Every structure is written in C-alpha cells, then in structure tokens.
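Quick one, tokens below:
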C-alpha cells in the first residue's frame, strides 16, 4: 500500500521523515511477522487471554524501560495522567490495543498463519477508508485501486485455501 501512496518516481526524492517512516514501518511489519511465527506454537497450546496479556505487559515494560533510559518517563507519565488525555486514551487503549490484539491473536490461534496474515493486512484498507472519512485525508485513485486489489487478493486467498 505504501507504493500505491507514493507518486511515481518519487522514492529517490522522499523527504527524510517520510523515508524514516517507511523504514520504521518495514521494521515493524518484519518484527510483527517474526513475532507471530515465534508465538504461533504458544498460541495453539495456551490460553488466548493469557498470551494477549503477556504481550501487552512485556510491551509496556519495554516501553517504560526505554523511556526511563532516555530520561522521559516522568514527563510522559505527567502528560498521560491528565484527565483530558484519558477521555480519548481509555477507549483507544481498550479498542485499539487490547481488544484488537486479542482478536488478532485469536485469528492466528485458530486459523492457519498464512490465511490470518492476509486477512489481518486488510487493516491497511480499513485505515485508508477511516482516514478519508474521519481525518478528511485525500484518497487518490492509485490508493483506491491498491485497496481494491488487496481486498480481492485477500478474498482469493480465503476462498481458495
């Protein structure tokens, strides 16, 4: 989808921030894929809630250690603990992190990884639609075409598996 969003011939002329963002997205996707392959046997044997909770706890612990190392922990805690922040953070945390991670890992627990992975990547398509509807971001023809192709590919994988 990133390639569908970038203008033709622009890869060499991307600004450093966008280049960094694309690189970090690639690292995130690679790390997620590796993590899923590593955790799949544990998921098949273990309790979904426990596995999800473990991922969240270790993820938060890692972030806290990183912020403490960088000297940013107290400032982050001060800003996060504001009531105005929690009005948005609590629903986003429950829906966008815990609930979605629970369902996401459930997909990998009970479906073949190859099918679950393809279906989970449809999140990119949903994101395009939501960004257009709620953030009023422009949806270019190439992005829409990429989304349609991604959805068609996912449908093909599911129907032919």
């Amino acid at each position: 989808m990133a390639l569908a969003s970038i203008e033709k011939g622009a890869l060499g002329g991307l600004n450093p921030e966008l280049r960094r963002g694309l690189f970090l997205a690639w690292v995130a996707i690679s790390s997620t894929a590796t993590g899923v392959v590593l955790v799949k046997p544990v998921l098949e044997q273990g309790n979904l809630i426990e596995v999800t909770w473990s991922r969240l706890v270790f993820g938060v612990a890692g972030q806290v250690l990183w912020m403490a190392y960088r000297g940013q922990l107290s400032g982050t805690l001060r800003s996060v603990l504001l009531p105005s922040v929690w009005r948005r953070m609590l629903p986003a945390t429950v829906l966008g992190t815990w609930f979605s991670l629970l369902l996401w890992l459930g997909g990998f627990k009970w479906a073949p990884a190859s099918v679950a992975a393809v279906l989970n990547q449809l999140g990119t398509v949903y994101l395009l639609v939501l960004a257009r509807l709620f953030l009023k971001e422009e949806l270019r023809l190439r992005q829409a075409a990429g989304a349609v192709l991604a959805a068609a590919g996912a449908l093909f994988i599911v129907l032919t598996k």
